[in-house]
Design goal:
Strand order of the largest sheet: 2-1-3-4
CATH architecture of one domain: 3-Layer(aba) Sandwich
Keywords: Endoplasmic reticulum, Selenocysteine, Signal
Main location: endoplasmic reticulum
Number of helices: 6
Family: Belongs to the selenoprotein M/F family.
Radius of gyration: 19 Å
Protein name: Selenoprotein F
CATH topology of one domain: Glutaredoxin
GO molecular function, one term: oxidoreductase activity
Helix content: 40-55%
């Protein structure tokens, strides 16, 4: 009986998982509403499937993930970004405050938007200024935000 179960799992990962992956990707806003934020890789969804037996959750994860490939994440760049945060909650995020006050000037295409009750997040923008990715940065240090933006946001001269 265990052999049949193992074959079923193998069939799932071999045939059904690629079918689920091929469905349309959800928008970053829809993914955020489902609780999937950040640059999740599809391999993370596969790991999730090993531990969580909720196929609907795994399917949603696969609709919000980025395909794994050699250096695929490092090649993604954006034209700009918005740092969204609640002004009242800033006191709880000294690293974000420090970045805004001391480092943000290096990034002319990065704006700060204060939205009531919003946790700190980066909203990455494409060439048309449309939201492409939302990344929570609650626990990021100032250096992490700085490094991420240097790697992911095109210099103003390149736009």
């Amino acid at each position: 009986m265990n052999v049949y179960k193992a074959c079923g799992v193998l069939l799932f990962f071999t045939f059904l998982l690629p079918i689920v992956k091929s469905k349309d990707q959800l928008s970053s806003r829809a993914c955020e509403d489902l609780g999937f934020t950040g640059l999740a890789l599809c391999s993370d969804c596969n790991t999730l499937a090993e531990y969580v037996k909720d196929q609907e959750l795994v399917s949603e994860c696969l609709k919000c993930c980025t395909e794994d490939s050699d250096d695929s994440i490092s090649k993604i760049t954006y034209s700009g970004a918005i740092i969204e945060v609640c002004m009242r909650k800033l006191v709880f995020y000294p690293e974000i405050v420090s970045f805004i006050e001391e480092e943000k000037g290096q990034f002319p295409t990065v704006k700060v938007q204060y939205l009531f009750n919003s946790p700190p997040k980066l909203i990455m923008l494409d060439d048309e200024g449309q939201h492409k990715e939302t990344i929570r940065i609650d626990n990021w240090k100032r250096e992490h935000v700085l490094q991420f933006l240097k790697e992911k946001v095109k210099p103003a001269s390149a736009i």
